[in-house]
């Protein structure tokens, strides 16, 4: 795909096998120096508001009674830990030159805002293969990224066994 040979390409990483495969695809499309890996830390899960990846307050916690003191430090610790994990997971020389980052935000918004802010020209992400009722109940990050992104999005279809 020579069209994207010099394009800054974002690959959101959730450390699943499918997202690691998306890194390989991004490297094939462009050079390592143009590949940006970002892990999005969901604040709902970070602060224990829910256990299903949603962004609403759940479990009886009320945001008005939550102690937000120390939140910036907690978020920075999780971002630093995510970047350290990215560096470890992608330490192989074949990833030399790839960029690593982490943000705290709802996944689709974090991905698209990172892309917009950092001049990304292509987003490559897996679909995770959810279909039917499961996709409607859980929601689809890939689907939301497609709707919110300012740039082209390449969604890699994953087959469910």
Automatic annotation (TrEMBL):
Domain of life: Bacteria
UniProt domain UspA: residue ranges: 8-157
Signal sequence bounds: none
Record-linked InterPro entries: Rossmann-like_a/b/a_fold (IPR014729), Universal_stress_UspA (IPR006015), UspA (IPR006016)
Family: Belongs to the universal stress protein A family.
UniProt protein name: Nucleotide-binding universal stress protein, UspA family
């Amino acid at each position: 795909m020579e069209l994207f040979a010099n394009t800054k390409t974002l690959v959101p990483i959730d450390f699943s096998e499918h997202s690691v495969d998306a890194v390989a695809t991004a490297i094939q499309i462009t050079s390592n120096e143009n590949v940006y890996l970002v892990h999005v830390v969901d604040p709902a899960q970070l602060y224990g508001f829910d256990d299903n990846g949603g962004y609403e307050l759940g479990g009886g916690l009320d945001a008005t009674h939550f102690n937000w003191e120390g939140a910036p430090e907690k978020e920075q610790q999780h971002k630093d830990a995510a970047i350290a994990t990215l560096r470890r997971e992608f330490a192989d020389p074949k990833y030399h030159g790839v960029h690593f980052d982490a943000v705290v935000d709802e996944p689709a918004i974090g991905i698209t805002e990172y892309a917009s802010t950092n001049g990304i020209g292509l987003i490559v992400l897996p679909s995770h293969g959810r279909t039917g009722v499961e996709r409607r109940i859980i929601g689809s990050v890939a689907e939301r990224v497609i709707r919110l992104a300012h740039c082209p999005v390449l969604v890699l279809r994953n087959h469910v066994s």
